[in-house]
Amino acid sequence: QVQKSSDFTDMLKKSPFFSNMSSDFVQDLSLVALDRICMPGEAIVHQGDVGSSMFIMVNGSADVYTSESSSAIHEKRRLSTNKQLVKDMAKVGHLAAGAVAGELAMLGITQARSATIQASSMCILWEVSQTGAMEILDRFPHERALFETVIVQNLDRTVPGRLLQLPLFQAFDRKFRMLATLYCERRAFFPEQNIIQEGEVGDKLWVINLGAACIKRGGFTVKLLSPGNHFGCDHMLGISRAYMASLLAVTVCHVLSLSRASYLIGLRQYPAKKAHQELVKMQTAESIQLREAAERAEVRNKFWQRYQEAEAVDKQASEAELVRRMTRSWRTYTKVVREKRRLQKQQQQELDERLAVWRNRNEGMRRKVNRSKRMKDLIKLNLTERGPLRYMDDSDDEELVNVPQVLPLLLKEHKQLVSTLQAWPSPRPSPHYDIKLWGMIGEELSDSGRESTLLPMLVTSPKSNMKGKGSRQSPGERDTSNHEQDQVTSTSWSAKPERFRM
User: What pLDDT digit, counting tens, does each position of 463-502 carry?
Assistant: First the structure.
């Protein structure tokens, strides 16, 4: 065993990979690591082998070789030694003290080794398994974020191929998909880490590029997502706001997220109205189906969980306790049913009352409209047809008076009225109808030399003034003077010119 001293830990922290990690993390990592020693020319790993561990070079050096065909390498490994094997491979790297190899296999990103590593000198290595590393990463969030960065950097080259081949965007232009590749966000998540929380408000589409995740509703699994599956497209399209379920990483996941703002930018630059409408229609239906499936799974799992709990309790309960429990459940159920029926009856009564009010209001408005329409028709009939006026029958608001049936009666009454008016005696013409009043008044006012008999109020005499001031006439005297004044007025009127008379 290699002594894992503090001096070596400090030396390891000086390497590029561990320079930003804490001493406690490196120390804990050294405790779960297995020591390996490889002699010069010995292969540490072979390309194409399945593995899930990471190697840290403690001392020594090694070379990295790759080949285009993994199947040819497996065939040569049976027939040749390690030295003969690497002759046909290309050298692509070199590992020195502090270097790390196989971190993607340890994180679960890749299952097969992507290169062959051969020791060029005696090497002392730490081999860290996936299980031990994950337990340590759960306790160190900062170091876990650094490993997430490593995952994102190594898998960035796979992003364009994933989005270009995504069935969701196949109807869109290739330039739109390339723009989505540039705008999408790359994220990495470790097992049991929440990608999305149920009820969280968001507007992003999440695409699983590598790894596995699951959709959970109420703590129960609804659906498993593999590479190429997506979740939250309805949020990117603006159909929904709050996520109806949680998205949880099952293994180490590399996830791509595309926001609504980035999607709209792509649509503005490369319009695809028909493809967008089809996508909205399809995702609306899929979101409804997924929501219904999530609700069914949640209810089914809750029933199963309650059944398991009840079964565990029933095994320990006595017969009397079971009877009491059954009676209590029946009483609670009947109470709920009665309350539900009462509420339904009350709601039905309120609905009937509202419908009755609506019917009465609608009937009143209908009668009002019909009466207005009939009135317009009757007015039009009176304006366009000759004869006496037609009237509405107020005793019946629903129907118009049948004008064609009463027309002969109305014409007969009209003839009788005309004959009656013709036989009616005419009044005697008055001589005062043709008086030119304004001309006569002007002439009277212009003749100032004599007293006006037509307008006695416009001319005042001294005698009348004296009478008004000095003495009061008796009733007999007033009657005599009035009679005399009437005679004078009639004489003056008969003496007027012919133009003031008829």
Answer: 444 444 444 444 444 444 444 444 444 444 444 444 444 3
For residue 435, the number of C-alpha atoms closer than 13 Å in the C-beta half-sphere is 11
**Residue 315 pLDDT more than 70?**
no
At residue 80, the pLDDT reads 52
How many CB atoms lie under 10 A from the CB of residue 254?
A: 25
Q: Which amino acid is at 64?
A: V
Element spanning 476, H or E: helix 475-494
What is the number of residues in the chain? Answer: 502
Cα-based angle 358, 362, 368 (whole degrees, multiple of 5): 150
pLDDT at 469: 43
User: Sheet containing 185-189: which strands, arranged edge to edge?
Assistant: 185-189, 253-259, 204-210, 230-231
Q: What is the reported pLDDT for 499?
A: 43
Give the C-alpha separation, 198 to 231, whole Å: 13
Find out whether 51 and 105 touch, Cβ atoms under 8 Å.
yes
| φ/ψ of residue 45, rounded to 5 | -140, 155
Give the helix ranges, DSSP H, for 107-165: 130-137, 141-154, 159-164
Report residue 398's pLDDT band, with 50, 70 and 90 as the boundaries: very low
Nearest to 54, CA basis, from 99, 10, 93: 99
Tell me the whole-structure pTM to 2 decimals: 0.56
Phi, psi of 159 (to 5 degrees): -65, -50
How would residue 453 be classed by pLDDT, with cut points 50, 70 and 90?
low
Average pLDDT of 240-268? 91
What is the per-residue DSSP string for 291-342? HHHHHHHHHHHHHHHHHHHHHHHHTT--HHHHHHHHHHHHHHHHHHHHHHHH
Q: At what angle do helices 141-154 and 130-137 cross, to 10 degrees?
A: 120
Find out whether 62 and 34 touch, Cβ atoms under 8 Å: no
The 10s digit of each residue's pLDDT in 355-377 is 999 998 899 899 889 888 888 88
Rounded Cα gap, residues 342 and 353, in angstroms = 17
Q: How many whole angstroms separate alpha carbon 73 and alpha carbon 61?
A: 23
Q: Are 195 and 213 in contact (CB under 8 A)?
A: yes
More confident residue, 30 or 398: 30
Torsion of CA 380, 386, 389, 391, to 10 degrees: -50
Q: Tokens 């040749």 label which residue?
A: 80
